[in-house]
Design a protein that fits this description.
membrane, 3 domains, Immunoglobulin-like, Transglutaminase-like, 38 strands, 8-stranded mixed sheet, transmembrane, Jelly Rolls, Papain-like_cys_pep_sf, C8orf32 fold, disordered N terminus, alpha+beta, about 20% helix, disordered C terminus
Length: about 675
Amino acid sequence: MRNALILPLLLLFFHLGNSQVSITPEPSWIIKEKHDANAQTPENGVSGGTHVLLYTEQIHMDREEIYIKSVSKAVEYSGIQNISSVVADYDPTYQKLRFHRIDVIRNGEVINRLRQEDIQTARRETNAENYIYDGTISAFFNIPDVRNGDIVLYSYSKKGFNPIQKGKFSTSFVLNSTQPIDKISAHAFSKDQLHYQLINTELEPIHKVKAGVNHYAWTQEDVPAILLEEQTPSWYVQNATVLVTEYDSWSDVIAWGRDVFTFEEPLSKELQDVVSEIRNTNKKEGDRIRAALAFVQNEVRYLAIHSGIGGYKPNPPNKVMEQRFGDCKDKSVLFSAMLNNMSIEAYPTLVNTSLRKILPTLPPSSKVFDHCIVKVVDQNGSTLWYDPTLTDQAGAFDNVYMPDYRYGLVLDQNMTAMDTISDFRNNLVETFSTFRLDEMGKGAELEVRTNYYDGEADFMRAIFRNNSNDVIAKELMAFYTETYGSTSSLAPPTIIDDAAKNQFALLERYKLDSIWRPSLENTNHINLSIYPTNLTSVLTMPSQLERTTPFALSYPMVRKQHVKIMLPEYIRAQAESVTINSDYFYYDFSSNYDSSDNILTLDYYYKNQDDHVPASGFDAFYKDMVQLDQQIGYFIISNKSGESSVDSIAYNLGTLIGYAMAALIPIGLVVLVIVIVMNRKKKKQG
């Protein structure tokens, strides 16, 4: 079915793509920006051997045209590759692409390279692996005979705005880049006054009115490159950006959305039969909500075809039901329609999976959203949130996991602003690890039970449903082999899935041939390293220490690990505890030794307090992370020489910190428990 549908679309878009690309003179309304051919290359160099001399983007909202002009110079041989091709993307369902100039400027001579027969088109599907087809066509032109020192100038325009916007336009201009730019400008023309917002810039526009048309211009010269910092939150905008919109308020966007998302036709017989079955089978409202969600999530597959109007307008519920596939909008409208038919209040809700927490701070726009979910209000007045595009979700109607989208625009006529998407889940993963040591210096048996909750349970459930048991077993074995050395399985991994509580448990048993490693500090010692892999696998030390942007943290996230080490010999080890109560994470560790049964227990707890660390708090956060990094490991060190006749039990040697004190211990077959020494990535064994 999928191939039968996609192939005709591919052929249609290919035909449209070739028929809607032409060569024309530049539009008369544009501002003719000039470049400086003699601009000096910045002292700190350029990126990719290319110096951008000019970039301008100009939009005429009344004419529905977008104009782009770019001028770049190859200042190194590597820059030839970067400036030798031109690519322009457009949607053939409502846009026409017009090339105006492609010139090579060499020693002041302008060489025209633009020919219709050299323009090629192809579909550009960057998200096809996720079953998302946006219909975009790329027109590209390979420029012949470009040499070092040449300047390449090109300009093109796109005619046509998506009609689904109903005459309301919004866009964004970016005023800097990761490479220096000699001159950059943005122009917006409209008969109406525009709303705009500046991000990471204080550059106010020059505003003029000519012949009843408002002209807003932002221009900068000698623009330095910006350095993008690692692990910056997706919602943080790093570039100097201008947001422009014709919408006056979020109420206007809600009105637009309600008009686009509303369908008056009655439910088809097929859809009504499904709703009736859900209503008759489930007497409680909550059970009906849960059953309808499961149907839309699992019985209607995800497929997004976002060309033209389809990028914003959902298909009618009856069509989605008939074809049994749809995108986030389709599935949300279908789910809402099913609940509404059962007299349950439900509304499609627009969200942005990246911008999330800054959505309410942005100017109103219908283009700022990239996803659709559903808000439900039950008979008790409680607000519930659901994402119909997710699959393999478990839990009752009131504890289904919802990702941290933070804010959404509910398409409810009674709403005038963003609604807060609250969620109480922690995404807890809790691990219980038991080591049964054969004898000092030998192997051990390892039993592991890992309990997954909330979104983590959904994730693991999907893994086991979409992969064979053999593949999963091999991946798990590879992890323990990398961590502890030669490993063999004592039993296949088994799962316990409590769908009602949305809890998922994984049970594993292994034989570790030898978990001891030679010590580089003392050739007469061997070490056993215990680390809370449940924590260390999700924690990373920042490598970029001077920051001007926030540092992203996984959120919500809670990790617990309980380690039990059943020792073959008696040792004495005092209890230890460490707590780090950072503003951004909380960490707690404790250890205890039961001398009667020779059992050593280690308990770890970690929780992120927020989804990011602000730049102002990064130094304190890093200091706390260094402390955690230095204290998260637990070592058992054994003397393996056997030269002493002293019995290890008689000496009752206890806990020591570090290696310096080892010289004070009488030689013998002793076991030293060394707590909180070093991190797994920096351990002294190498």
